[in-house]
Amino acid sequence: MNTSLKNTARLLGAGLRALLVLSVVCGVLYPLAVTGVAQAFFSGRADGSEIGDGSGRTVGSSLIGQRYDLPKQDPDDPDEVAKPDLTWFQPRPSNGLGSNSVNPRYSLILSGATNRAADDAGLVTWVKEAKAAVVADNSTPTHRVRAEDVPADAVTSSGSGLDPHISPAYARLQIHRVAERNGLAVQRVAKLVAEHTEGRALGFMGEPRVNVLELNIALREATGG
Q: What Cα–Cα distance (Å) separates residue 155 from each residue in 57, 166, 181?
């Protein structure tokens, strides 16, 4: 009996010592080491890839999209659909499945795609309506957008629903409207788009893209806002 108690106590002691050592190593030393390396070599990414507007104020993250909408007429009405502020370049449709108080302009708690098939009647109707809206919003008295010129990312959300990028084609489609709304020359806005078009990662991975937040910050600077 005494031997059994001693063995049990020895095993419990060994287990507790292992728990203590692993807690210190995995729960304290390892997180501190990883955080230190991240802050030393990748501080911007470690802090959320935040983007400032040039005045020292953080306006968003380069990793998460956000909307550019007009203020709601009735902020207390949860069913009121916000209308896009056509002064700015617009992002992909948001398909976030929740909202929070940190960034109420984009749904961030959950994200995800609609997971509907390409021939789903509801999805087809939604895409047709979205395409018609893109054509109407981006056509100007001197420039008519054709339905066939609307790229897929203008009318569909990304897999996460929070994509911060749009295709160069969608950015170019918005140039005339943005130029007219801001009183800028079309060539100047086109230059902003070209300057903020990123190539494929390592030259071959992914597709060319435009970060909407970074582009709109440059647009704001161009308008003196």
A: 31, 11, 22
Question: Taking the mean position of all CA atoms in its chain, how far away is CA 4?
Answer: 61
Q: Which residues contact 5 (CB under 8 A, 6 or more apart)?
A: none
Q: Give me the mean pLDDT over the 54-73 stretch.
A: 81
CA distance 95 to 106: 9
Q: Does the predicted model carry a pTM greater than 0.70?
A: yes
Instruction: For residues 165-170, give the mean pLDDT.
Output: 96
Query: Over the stretch 128-164, which tens digit does the pLDDT of each residue have?
Result: 999 999 999 999 999 999 999 999 999 988 877 788 9
* CA 164 – CA 121 distance, rounded (Å): 28
Beta bridge partners of 51: 60
Question: What sign for the dihedral angle of Cα 133, 138, 140, 145?
Answer: negative
Contact 179, 163 (CB under 8 A): no
Question: Distance of alpha carbon 129 from its chain centroid, rounded?
Answer: 23
Whole-angstrom distance, CA of residue 188 vs CA of residue 1 = 89
Contact 166, 210 (CB under 8 A): yes
Cα 202 to the center of its chain, rounded Å: 21
Q: pLDDT tens digits, residue range 85-137?
A: 999 999 998 755 444 444 445 445 556 666 778 888 888 898 899 999 999 99
Residue 138, Cβ density class (10 Å: 0-12 exposed, 13-18 middle, ≥19 buried): buried
Are 167 and 208 in contact by the 8 Å Cβ rule? The answer is: yes
